[in-house]
Structure formats: structure tokens, C-alpha cells
Amino acid sequence: MLAAHFDCPGGPENLYVKEVMKPHPGEGEVLVKVSASALNRADLLQRRGKYPPPKGASDILGLEAAGSVAGLGPGCTMRWKIGDAVMALLSGGGQAEYVTVPEGHLMPVPKDMTFIQAAAIPEAWLTAFQLLHFVGKIQKGETVLIHAGASGVGMAAIQLVRLANAIPIVTAGTQEKLKATTNAGAAAGFNYKNEDFSEKVLAFTQGSGVDIILDCVGGSYWEKNLSCLRTDGRWVIYGLLSGGEVHGDLLARLLSKRGSIHTSLLRSRDKEYKEQLVKAFIENVLPYFSGGASPHLQPLVDSVYPLHEIVEAHRKMEESKNIGKIVIEMPVKSL
To answer: What range(s) does the Enoyl reductase (ER) domain occupy (predicted)?
Structure first.
């Protein structure tokens, strides 16, 4: 089968498409013929040699995919059958023509949704759902500050905060991105490049601050985050785009707010945790992707690249030019 590959860590130019062995499903695993996968920041970090796959995971890039069930390993229940349209949460391997997945990490593709759209759901939406509900314990009426609001996780989080009857506000780096977040449901948005988001957040919340911060930026935002965190607020860190170093009296500031810092990574979670997460998402969120549901949830696809243009796709994400998800489409072949 064909797969995205790199021989040594580095820039996007190190990527190429290579023929590799097609995987075989093990105990309790399903073989999926991939129609589309989507890019995540983790793919860029892995390509640079900074985020190796967990032990036992495929070293092929790709943390999410959508396609059709092509085979069932020993011990599978009757949950899935050959030909079912599915989307998958992966620890790796999505940017290839086939991938094996534990059966509990698969979700049915919502009715009337294309594989391109479905590929934009698993990693981004499950991450946002996990951060808000499993980690942040979001409550009705709370205000949530979402950094990188126009990213895949950000656009999912905006809609999930609304679904939880809470209030999403965001930061982003361009007016175009802020407009997209407003269209997705953000109550307010602030351009971190030309205004102090902490001052704007305090003004929006009439001085009280936000209950939850979803932060993929890290070090450079710590003072502003603490300035606009409400007393007893939760600061949830799931990425370190600006690095992890902090210079200053973070702990005293945090203590004065009685605030809590939570950190979370989804990729390295164990199989059982991911199964529980997928199950909760299927029950509580997935129905809202179907036509006619209210509120109606919608994955936002920024752009679609064929597998052989994987280099260009990585470059676009590296330059932070995307609003929503960048999707990789696999070559069309019969089963």
C-alpha cells in the first residue's frame, strides 16, 4: 500500500509517498480502507522528530481517518461489518491506504456526510470533547477561553461549548480567522497579535474572568492566562506551541486565584480510556452531526490535498494558514 513517509526528521520537504506493507488486523482490530485522513500538529512534531509514536503504534503519520471496513481481526464482536463507513481515532497510521484500528476506537460516519468531512472529526473533536468534559468538567453557563480558535480543535471546541450551554470566546491571529470563529458560534474573539487578550477577556466578563482556558500555546501566555482566569478556574494545557518555559512567579499567581492547571494528551492514553471517550462521544455528540439535528454540529474543512501533495499540506499547516482542518485524500482503488 502507499503511505506518507520520511527517512529522517526535518522539514516538510523530507516527506514522500512510499510503498509499504499493508497491515493485518490483530486481536479485536478492524482493517480500514482509508479514503481520507486529516493533519494535526502532532504530525508536524513527529516529522521533526519531536513527538515519537507511542510504543506499539504505527510509525506512519496520521491520527485520524475515515473510510470503509475492509477486514476483521480475530475476536471482533459483531459491531462492524465489511463495507461499513467508519471514522477512526488513531495512535498513528492514518496517512496510508489502509490502517488497523481497535474496534472500540471506530465511529459510524454520520448520515449524508462525506469521507472528507468525516476525516476532520475524530482527533480534533474527541480532543476538544475530552478537554471540555473529561478534564475541564465544563458546566452550564460557564465561559471558556479557547486559544487557536480557528484550528481544528478550536472550531470543534466552540461548537461543543455551545452544545454544553456554555459561552465560548477565542483568540486567533487574523480577522479572517476571527470571522470564521464567530460563524462557528464564538461569542467574542480577540486578535492576539494586536491586542491584549487578557484585558479584552476581563472586559467581556465584566472583570470576573473565564472559568476554563483551553491552551495549546503554553509558556508565552502564562501571565495573560492567569490575569483573565476566574477564581477557582481551570487552565487546561494540551500543547506547547510557544514552548514550555515559564519565567516568573506562576505558582503564587495561581494560588492567589485558587486556580488549577490540568494537562492532557490524547495520543498516549491507553486503549480503554480511548474506548470510553469514543463511547461517550457517540452517545452525547455524534447525533448532532446528522442533518436536521438542533443544534447542528459541522466539521470545518479548510482544504483537501491528494496524498502525493502531502508536502504542500504540511507546509500550509506549518505556516498556520488553515482555518479548520487540512484533509489528505487517498488514491481511489477498489477493495
So the answer is: 10-328
For residue 335, pLDDT beyond 50? no
E strands, 75-194, are 85-89, 98-102, 106-108, 143-146, 167-172, 188-191
Strand 210-215 to 188-191 pairing: unpaired
Whether residue 17 contacts residue 32, with contact meaning beta carbons closer than 8 Å, is answered with: no
Can you give the pTM of this predicted structure? 0.93
Note whether 20 and 61 are within 8 A (CB): no
- Among 96-110, 189-203, 258-272, 306-320, where is mean pLDDT lowest? 258-272
Q: What is the pLDDT of residues 229-240, one digit of tens each?
A: 999 999 999 987
Kind of pairing between the strands at 29-38 and 325-329: antiparallel
Q: Are 58 and 99 in contact (CB under 8 A)?
A: yes
Which grid cell is 163?
A: 452544545
As given in the structure block, the three cell numbers for residue 33 are 480502507
Q: For 299-329, how does the pLDDT look when each residue is reduced to its tens digit (9 = 90+)?
A: 999 999 999 999 999 999 999 889 989 999 9
C-alpha cell recorded at residue 168: 465560548
Q: Which residues pair with 30 in a beta bridge?
A: 72, 101
β-sheet bridge partners, residue 99: 32
